[in-house]
Amino acid sequence: MADALFRDAQLSQAFAPQVREVNQLCDALMAEKPDSTVPYIAPHHNAANARILSLYSNPGPARRPSPQPGFLSGENDDPSAERMSQIYTTVGLSDADVMPWNSYPWNVHESYPNGLPPQLVVDGLGPLKRMLELHPKIRAVVAHGSDAQRSMKLLATKKRFAEFSSARSLVVWQARHPANRVFILPSPDRAAAIERVCASYREAMESVGVAPLPAAGRTAAVKQVRATRRAAATRALSGADLVSEVGDVLSGRTDGLTATQTRNAVRAYLASMSPRRRTDLLVELVAQRLDS
Question: Where is this region: Disordered (predicted)?
Fold first, then answer.
């Protein structure tokens, strides 16, 4: 989250309604292990209504020292987050329909940089179940890497969790972990590997009633992998929908305000949006102006 305005807005909304319950769970998990941190779910994700779970291994290393636990977010400043942002953009998956989680939610990356020992995967099943109980709309899981894939298998087979897993009827797709080391491949193979992850997300989206963008050709896929997160993300959402959203949210809130107060209200709302949503909104407004 290199954009300081966006980062501060996310921090200020860490307990906004759409992420309140899951981030309260993160606080509870940190209280259970007082010397640990559990990243919050970034509030640009509409976790309360998410239908797809992106499941990973454990939180990656912090990019900057901070007393805050940080966020799980495709807007983070690391290659894995950038790659996932590109994948979401490629398939047309918006923050409103997906949320991230880790098989072991506590930050142990420095101790286990190359994957979790089996016991920690087991230890993460309880928090995983608690998170899923808070989000009954999640019906599809894309499990990235062997740790996440083991988590979902154990959730379905361990006696303590099997009944819950069966009742939820979660459908699981296996996919590569987005870490750089997993994508150290020749360019054509890397593009093909990215496309296989995208294919898993397209299937997951279709299973929950979200229409994915169609698969691109190989040349387009290679360009997509090389594109920056900011440039790629401008295609993620409908600008027209964002214009309507801003109008709906601010409708009635600015009645009786001065022009300066109205601008401040709009500015505060825009600050709460992710950079890609702000860019898409700006593109749509400029396009509407040019067409008028």
Answer: 57-80
| Separation of alpha carbons 145 and 200, rounded Å | 13
User: Is position 235 within any domain?
Assistant: no
Angle CA(219)–CA(146)–CA(179) in degrees, nearest 5? 45
172 and 126 together in one domain: yes
Q: Identify whether 236 is part of a domain.
A: no
Report the CATH number that the domain containing residue 114 is assigned in CATH. 3.40.470.10
- Kindly tell me the burial class for residue 215, based on how many C-beta atoms sit within 10 Å of its own C-beta (0-12, 13-18, 19 or more): middle
b/e per residue, 129-163, with b = 16+ CB within 10 A?
bebbeebeebbbbbbbbebbbbbbebbeeeeebee
The per-residue pLDDT for range 244-268, each reduced to its tens digit, is: 656 655 555 566 677 777 776 677 6
Count the neighbouring beta carbons within 10 Å of the beta carbon of residue 68. 12
Residues 177 and 256 in one domain: no
Same domain? 271 vs 189: no
C-alpha to C-alpha distances, 240 to 83, 150, 285, nearest whole angstrom: 26, 41, 8
Contact residues for 166 (Cβ-Cβ < 8 A; gap 6+): 156
* Token pair recorded at residue 257: 């305000």
Q: What is the model's pTM? A: 0.75
pLDDT in tens, 144-182: 999 999 999 999 999 999 999 999 999 999 999 999 889
Q: How many whole angstroms from its chain centre is CA 67?
A: 22
Query: How many domains does the structure of the chain reveal?
Result: 2
- Residue 178 covered by a domain: yes
Judged against a pLDDT cut of 50, whether residue 68 lies above it is answered with yes
Instruction: Indicate whether 267 and 185 sit together in one domain.
Output: no
